[in-house]
Design brief:
15% of the residues lie in helices and 46% in strands. With 138 residues, it is of the alpha+beta class. The protein has one domain (25-137): Lipocalin (Beta Barrel), CATH 2.40.128. It has an eight-stranded antiparallel beta barrel with strand order 1-2-3-4-5-6-7-8. β4 and β5 (93-101) form a beta hairpin. The longest helix has 21 residues, at 2-22.
Length: 138
């Protein structure tokens, strides 16, 4: 009986450790385009919103590049730009996300492949093209 309790405790703590690995992405990041974002979790998916503009695009504060003209006056600050990232336990990556790039008014596929001490590695793709970027942790 004592061995069963120890085994159950080990399984419980192991499952907790795995659950927290996905949440390592939660936090604030500075993007190469001078936007700051915050990534957070809702349910089993991760989302990101703009929390600072930092002089983005020479002072642009609204969504002027959006292909929908009715969205041009939408403020960038607070805008949800990352949707639906999921943590893949086997690959240890965040996959199946979508990211809106306000500098081009386009939606890209998003994958986060690595978390390091000071930054994360992000891969954005559209059709057959992909680009790897580093986002700095704030």
């Amino acid at each position: 009986m004592k061995h069963l309790k120890i085994l159950l405790a080990l399984l419980f703590f192991t499952s907790l450790a795995h659950a927290q690995v996905g949440d390592d992405i939660i936090g604030k990041y500075h993007l190469p385009n001078d936007l700051d974002i915050e990534i957070y979790k809702e349910g089993n998916k991760y989302f990101g919103k703009i929390i600072a503009l930092n002089g983005y695009q020479n002072g642009q504060t609204t969504d002027t590049k959006n292909p929908d003209d009715s969205e041009h006056s939408t403020p960038l600050l607070g805008m949800l730009i990352i949707h639906g990232l999921e943590f893949d336990m086997d690959e240890k990556q965040w996959i199946n996300g979508k990211m809106y790039g306000p500098e081009k008014g386009m939606i890209f596929n998003l994958k986060i492949t690595e978390i390091r001490e000071k930054d994360i590695e992000v891969v954005g793709s559209k059709y057959f093209f992909w680009h790897t970027l580093e986002w700095l942790k704030i």
